[in-house]
Write the structure tokens for this entry.
Amino acid sequence: MKTYISPWPQTAALPPFPRTVSVLGATGSIGASALKVMARHKDKFTVTALAGGRNAKRLAKLAVEFRPEFTALLTDEAAREFKSLLPSDYSPKILVGPEAYVTLATLPQADLILSSIVGAAGFPPTLAAARAGKVIALANKESLVLGGHIIRKACHESGAVILPVDSEHNALFQGLLGHSSEDGLHKLILTASGGPFRGRNRAFLKTVTRDQALAHPNWSMGAKISIDSASLMNKGLEVIEACHLYGVSVDQVDVVVHPQSIVHSLVEFADGSQIAHLGQPDMQIPIAHCMCFPERVTLDVKRLNLAEVATLTFEKPDKSAFPCLRLAFEAFQAGPSHPTVLNAANEVAVDLFLKERIHFLDIPAMIERALSDHAPIPVDTPEAILDLDREVRAQVRGRA
Ligand code: NAD
Ligand code: MG
């Protein structure tokens, strides 16, 4: 049998329509785009579970619209507020706390899990879904950065399938479809918009504010990924994500800056052919591709008109002004525990930057220090990864 280069084992059975969906991270930016797709194609989906974090009002609004049987929030306080906002004719099960997300990721009646929590908190439920043999539409790239090796093994053992929501990896997925390892995959080329500070030098970056960093030129996203895009850490995390999804070495992944965000990534084969995926920068496109796969559906997104766009440009990333990209490549090369350190230090640093307690350039500095202090350890179990994650967070916070 040919080995296809894809996270989707072509022998896997995809669930029939209507698909029963559990949305983890329903109140976020990806959650909103996914629910827009599901509202547009009601005949294709039944929403069985919606999980938010602390935003009770937003979750209540969504729950009233989609009427899931299960809901989850992070705290008792948020759950009480959520309950108080529901109408008298609707009383879903309300689960609370981190374990609730694992429960909703493994519900027997859910055949499609949208993993769209932000950060390392997405790792336990994503792994649980992988172990339970689910079809996972994966936005939460951090879970692969932490434990891609464990998640892929779990998928292999259970028959779970990962469909990549991240626009670059979805583009690669579309470029790889139908190709087998015999076609000679040469490189995966990830495009990066360059973020709001493209072309700026370190002197400028020293002075940038939270609001400037949050103002992404092309994409509307949650706060953490917006800062990651400004520092280029988002691309660094995506390089690691690509290595895990497609089983390639880090030397086979290139990054090219493409400020228009129209070409979402490219696959290069042995014969020199490069296959690109183009589209408007709207997350509904990759989300719908995953959730309806292998069908294509009509979406209410602006059509791409290349004559209107006129110019597509490409340039090398500036790894000296934006060291996070280099740090991610180095962390992945250094060994299996370094990416967890990279991610934990980044999450703490981004949080401190969003609270205006550190400067923008302190983000790479804090990550570099955490990585250079780290002595590699085995991370063969999720417990070892989560312990390391907690330890690094405490260390990095302690130094701030
Ligand atoms: P967001 O901040 O808008 O939403 C995050 C969601 O996670 C919210 O529903 C929030 O309530 C929930 N959440 C936060 N912390 C939690 C915790 N500890 N436990 C449980 N739930 C928690 O983020 P987003 O922009 O939607 O991004 C979500 C994920 O998707 C991230 O991993 C991001 O990297 C990835 N992603 C996002 C985009 C995008 O365009 N927004 C694109 C590609 C990938
Ligand atoms: Mg992306």
